[in-house]
Amino acid sequence: MKFCLPDQKIISDPLLGLINISEFLPLIDVPEFQSLAFKYQLGLAFLLFPSATHTRKQHCFGAYQRTKTLMRYWTRNNMVTKDQARTVRAYALYHDIGHGPFSHTVEPLFDLLPKSKRTALRADDAMALEIVRGLRKKIESVGVDFKLFYDLCQHKNPLYLAVHDKNLGMEKFDYLTRDAFYTVNEVPGVDYLSRYVYFIDKQVVVDEQAMDQARSIQAFYIKMSKHVYLRKKSAIIQRLIQKMAYEMVKDGISVNDIWKMTDFGLLGRFELSKNPLIRYYYSRLCSGQFPKTAMDFKYGQFLQVDKYREDKTMHIFGFDEETLNSMLAHPAITNLQSLAEIEKKVARIAKIPSEMVIVVPPMSHHRFIPEDIKVYGRDGRIVKLSDFYPDHFAAMAEYGRSHHLLRICAFAEYRDQLSKASEKIKDYFLSFIR
Fold it and tell me: Where is the HD domain (predicted)?
């Protein structure tokens, strides 16, 4: 008897073991997906955590495998159809396909575009839609409902939450686990929790039996924020990358061309740039010589916590909520062009070279605003996790606020001089809102 053996493509993953990617090989073997192998999931975090060189391609395979397992549960329990499950699996594979180099780090470049060319979507989401439209024939060739797939990419169909729910999405479970594995060498209990995640009444919910595990995952995310995502040095390095990318735009390279580069491609452009400022920053970056914080502007309620860190080269200023919110939301702080002018002004106040000053705005605040988790009770009611653990959510919100701050930094040789001008610099920033 002649056997017809299946043509299988299997990859090995350090966290999930063997992953069979055979069903979507045509989607994988395209340049747009393959380029994710040259984009690090955590950007330049490998400068702090040498093992954090995992890529968005690796993460997409992980999100795909986790979604594949979830869809098997949901199909078995009639929460989705087989066709829907297949489309959601494909969406998980492509959920990061629109990301640019160093991801959200260079996203503020899009604010430099004329208003007529901007989009209401986040840059990675807008680029993803453009890529997906161009790959329509490929997507349909593997038996995927393109209309549903496109709706998932636009977040119009609630099934996208299987992948992208802020608390219970499979891509969240994967990046949290993967990032932790390569940085703090811990693995949260997402595998157990994922077995109790359901799709009911067009909502992603967690079984009441797994409420404590859901709360633990949120607490673990706060831990990762503290030790990895919101690290001070990470924020400073990201701002340095922004400044170099902004110089490229000034040199005539379009924002869209920068966004289409890989991490390696952008770093290569920095290294070969004829712009002396880019070359200078890049040489300091490669030498591990990063700017140091001279001043922090933050909410006054957190001032006492950080007082022990204050010394003659580091000043921490506390402000009331209205004042700090107004300052951090001011257009001069949120726009790269005006931020560059602010850095020059700060340098003049401190009487140091302008290229030595780095002003670091808050990182994406919305990412760290806690979102409630819906809980499915055995009586059929859907309630909120905060109904059971209100203090837990209050603590998360407070942690996010503690990291909503402005940093004013300088390279080490000018940090003392910048610090000595801290009072004048504080008054300068307050002048924005007077």
Answer: 58-134
